[in-house]
Design a protein that fits this description.
The protein has 11 helices and 13 strands. With about 350 residues, it is α/β, with parallel strands linked by helices. Strand 4, helix 3 and strand 5 form a beta-alpha-beta unit. Helix 2 runs parallel beside helix 3 and helix 3 runs parallel beside helix 4.
Length: about 350
């Protein structure tokens, strides 16, 4: 009889951990363990929940006792503030999880990262490959933590050559329920931009984030991978598609705001990004995602943004409004177009395999 595969998901009380765990529970032949310091608001049926901090020194014993095959590390605080509590949870927490996995003989670790780790710099090439140095922002804790975890992971890989470590560096995540720097910028009616700058940007649909994590769990693909939807757009086009009016801010004022967050007026409070990310290009090369990881996002960049725009309009439309049916038609039309493209892609893959 084949032994049941055990997958442990950290941060299962959080948004990403909960969604990945729920999807894994729908698959047969898997034992899914979820771990978090606090219980999920709704415990999914079938989830083997363990309430514990990931920094607990007994993590190694847990992984050994449960014979965990794969760890999907999603315990991460997205706070922009850099303080000791967040540093310990994010960076030290990842170190503890990785170390415990190696000692327990875990076969694979999958974790979520960001293309923001490359940094937004004037000398950036047109496309940033996975081997590009990591110069992510030091102003915002979220990016700084990601960079420090990635740097630790690079050294850890060389020390543990038998452990498969997959880092998925996602572009700007956009979706109805995801809370990310870009969705924070797009949810309102207006958004600050840097006067005279309009950088090209990438996005990824929140559903494709889940699909990519699941794909990496199912398939062995060691290394780092940039993950983004097909397509590029300038920031002003992104704002236009999602119904946001750009409000230009002099960039010296924006940078001053970052350094003076306690001031009476602080543009930094309005910018969910370090200003550099709204000034310079930080576009990732996704060829490795397609060729080595074998993953293709289902949503294009334009579909992702139009779906978000439809969601925004629907929030302000009651069931009795004349626009409600039109919004529903628009949403269904986008779904039909996406499914048609998916079927065509599957047919092409089937023909190529023959």
């Amino acid at each position: 009889m084949m032994q049941q595969q055990t997958i442990l998901v950290t941060g299962v009380a959080g948004y990403w951990g909960a969604r990945v765990a729920q999807r894994l529970l729908a698959e047969s032949g898997l034992h899914v363990i979820g771990i978090d310091a606090t219980p999920p608001q709704e415990l999914p049926e079938g989830l083997d929940f363990v309430q514990a901090d990931i920094r607990n020194p007994l993590m190694t014993e847990l992984l050994k006792a449960e014979r965990v095959d794969t760890v999907c590390h999603l315990a991460f605080s997205d706070s922009r503030r850099r303080n000791e509590a967040n540093f310990d949870l994010n960076v030290m927490g990842a170190m503890k999880v990785f170390g415990a996995a190696a000692q327990a003989g875990v076969r694979k670790i999958v974790y979520r990262s960001s293309t923001a780790v490359y940094g937004a710099l004037p000398q950036n090439p047109a496309y940033l490959s996975e081997t590009h140095p990591l110069h992510g922002s030091k102003q915002y804790g979220y990016t700084r933590y990601m960079v420090e975890i990635e740097e630790f992971c690079n050294g850890f890989r060389s020390q543990q050559p038998d452990l498969i470590i997959t880092s998925l560096r996602f572009a700007n995540i956009v979706g109805e329920t995801a809370v990310t720097p870009l969705t924070t910028l797009l949810r309102g009616k207006v958004a600050p931009v840097l006067l005279g700058f309009d950088p090209m940007m990438q996005v990824i649909h929140e559903d494709d984030v889940i699909e990519a994590l699941l794909h990496a769990i199912r398939h062995d693909a060691p290394g780092a991978f940039n993950v983004a939807a097909p397509g590029l757009m300038p920031l002003t086009r992104i704002l236009a598609l999602t119904g946001v009016l750009p409000v230009p801010v002099l960039h010296p004022l924006a940078y001053w705001g970052v350094q003076n967050v306690r001031g009476r007026f602080s543009p930094a409070r309005l910018l969910p990004f370090d200003p550099d990310y709204l000034r310079y290009r930080w576009v990732a090369d996704t060829r490795k995602m397609e060729t080595e990881l074998g993953f293709t996002p289902q949503y294009s960049m334009e579909e992702t943004l139009r779906a978000f725009a439809t969601f925004k309009r629907a929030r302000h439309t009651t069931a009795d409004d004349d626009d409600a049916l039109e919004l529903d038609k628009e949403r269904l039309r986008h779904t039909l177009e996406r499914r048609q493209r998916q079927r065509a892609r599957r047919e092409q893959q089937k023909e190529a395999a023959q």
